[in-house]
Amino acid sequence: MTEQISLLNQPTLKPKIILGIAAHPDDLDFSASGTMAYFASKGSEVHYLILTDGGQGTSDKNLAPDQLTKIRQIEQQKALKILGGKTVQFLDYPDGNLVNSPELKKDIIKTIRTIKPDVVITMDPTMVYSASRGMINHPDHRVAGQAALDCVYPLARDHLAYPELYAQGYIPHKTKTILLTNFDTQNYILDISETIDLKIQALKAHTSQIEDIQQTAIWIKQNSANIGKNHGYQYAEGFIRIDLRV
Ligand SMILES: [Zn+2]
Fold it and tell me: 0.85 exceeded by the pTM?
């Protein structure tokens, strides 16, 4: 049985190198870690780039932001290891105030040109809110998605974008495919039935962020089952897939 479905009849995805780009430690593990683990098990290299220091993600008044940053970075490293991922890089921009600045884009371009991914996974920046889910998407998530898209196309590809990078040896790179997380819309579905347990294990590693892992596991399974049910999969993750032709 096929393990992935493209509603646009795009070819089967077989990434050599995947780069996940997200605002906070845990974002990629909530949205895409079944997919990360699936491709890692098939031989893909999986890398993460986390843009902020995650220093605001607590209700614990006794925890200093720099302590929280350290805790969250260790949690992210553990989670990625569980998934079979290779490296995680932290850029440490201040949590809660991420701006799609020239400085941020320059940092992302450097990573794209170093890792040379054929697939980039990030969040759909157009996802501002969901009335049906009663939520506003965190502004850092939107900025991270927008900055990632801007860097994939055209900035990482063009040697004249930030020409000092080219002069420093960062050779331009074309990413072939983007997978965007959008909670309500998907055109690409991946069967994660074999990796759902790894996804839950990875989320368990984020102990500072998850109060009740049993409840989170139930919610993750329900959500993944909902995505999978129309496609014959027990559990699935879905994305908006864009194969770049230029
Ligand atoms: Zn987040």
Answer: yes
